[in-house]
Known about the structure:
- The protein is α/β, with parallel strands linked by helices.
- The protein folds into four domains: 15-149 and 227-295, Rossmann fold (3-Layer(aba) Sandwich); 153-220; 310-382, Outer Surface Protein A, domain 3; 395-494, no CATH class.
- Helices cover 43% and strands 14% of the residues.
- It contains 20 helices and 13 strands.
- It has helices at 19-28, 51-59, 72-84, 122-135, 155-167, 173-190, 192-197, 201-210, 213-220, 230-238, 255-258, 273-284, 304-307, 337-343, 350-355, 364-376, 395-406, 430-442, 446-456, 473-494, and strands spanning 41-45, 64-69, 90-94, 108-113, 136-147, 242-247, 288-295, 311-313, 322-324, 329-331, 380-382, 414-419, 424-429.
- Bound molecules: S-adenosylmethionine.
- S-adenosylmethionine is lined by residues 3, 5, 9, 11-12, 14, 46-48, 69-71, 74, 96-97, 114-116, 120, 124, 218.
- The site of S-adenosylmethionine has 21 residues, from loops.
Amino acid sequence: MQYRTDIEYIASFNARQAPPVMNYAAALAGFDPIDLSRPFRYCDLGCGPGLTLLTLAAAFPQAEFVGVDFNSNHIRMAQARAEATGLKNVKLIHSNFTELKERNLPQFHFIAISGTLSWLADAPRDAVLDFMGSNLVEGGLAYLHYMVMPGHVIQPPLCRLASDYYNQLEGEPEEKVLLTKEFLKGFLNTQKRYFEVSPTAKDFLQNMINSTTSLFLHDYLSNVRKAYYFADMNQLLEQRGLRYAGSAEPFYNHLQLVVPMESRELFRGVRERASVEAIKDYICVTGGRTDVFCKTNRSAGNEKPLESVLVVALPGQDQNQVINFSGMAVRLNVDPMATVLRLLQTPSTLEKLYQHPELSAYPRHEIRKALTYAVAARRVIPIATPPTPVTTISAYNRDALSQVVTTAPDLLPSVTLASPVMGSGHCISWVDAVMLWSIVNYGAEASQKALEIMQKRNLALKVQTKDEKELTPQETMRLAIQNSVRQFNVLLPFMGISPHLAV
Ligand SMILES: C[S@@+](CC[C@H](N)C(=O)[O-])C[C@H]1O[C@@H](n2cnc3c(N)ncnc32)[C@H](O)[C@@H]1O
């Protein structure tokens, strides 16, 4: 067995594989981004139950989305949700990656594989990489998430321990997982010597113990669980005509931000981008990589592509004025950063910032640095299109919210809404989704409906009042709904998600 199909994988939304994020990584490296205002094709390999695929399809109605998975339940679940929400731009393909060639799929502008590559044996892995080589348009972008060495080095012995224990048990998988977790807890609490030799293994073991049953089986107990050295993955892709563009995690693209001062000397004389990346993985000791590759035979390096990328500052951010990275701290309240952040409250591009009178005293490279560091600090995000006033909630987002009526928060900790502006999904907590669902559907009676849903789950809200007065559940919920309306009225229309919510 190379990958389980007997237990469904619990879905989560992966914003790193959203087209604007992949475009940003490519443009930062000097590759042309894909034009998101035009029709394009996107393929998600190992789409699972389709949360990421369908959310992106809802965010880009003019584009075509194809999901491939060999678990028929996943394909059925994704298909059912696509139909229920009226998505016409999604095609689901039940196939093993090893049979991709026979599926006669078209050329794509984006191909993504997330949470899957490291769990594939060599044959399906090669089939995936071949597909990227053959089915990406010239200039097309690939997203690959995989586990990486040396950060992964502590994991195999603990997965092996869990696997061996699990395999000698009898009973149903869920029951065996619980017993294996008990065993691991015992190990964690008693084995001082093991964790002296391998101190970071403790965090990993704790994550294993805290994971859901589905994740535990799919991730930690998989027969194949392979970490790659970046240099090897890079070579496999170069052999197929793809070049490394950058990380979908923007901060990871800036050596200055992630490499502490005392380690920078190690890069002296290292010229190749691939060699820089390989050494960086040893310094940052990350467990996984989220790489973006471009199908091209031309070298990157041109500064132009980044200038046309549309970006915007996120509203409602915390007030922290300094963001600490492992390499250096970024101050947000000194110019040109402070001005760039203020100007980006309305969507703009680097090209426009270069022309802006308020920034005329600064050289271009400083404005570029401010913008890219603001993105690295997640204060600014790349987006697909400027916001326009939205007056209706889409069928997809209405359906996404309605899940809170039937599903408890432990099974649905967050709800993902599709945002055509962000060209991505925006996740809100179960409680926020209860509020929004009630407001959208019940207007003036929203607080009554929200209270009913919360009470069904034995949950209650607490609101602090100035005079410390005890509030009834009804009064509390009315206040909570008013707060939510204020919060959503600022945030969601900006993201192109919701109608104006005056209740
Ligand atoms: C861990 S899930 C990742 C789901 C989703 N991409 C995400 O990031 O949440 C891996 C998915 O890949 C699928 N898969 C694994 N091996 C496969 C293969 N050889 N061919 C097709 N699908 C495969 C599994 O069925 C599963 O849905």
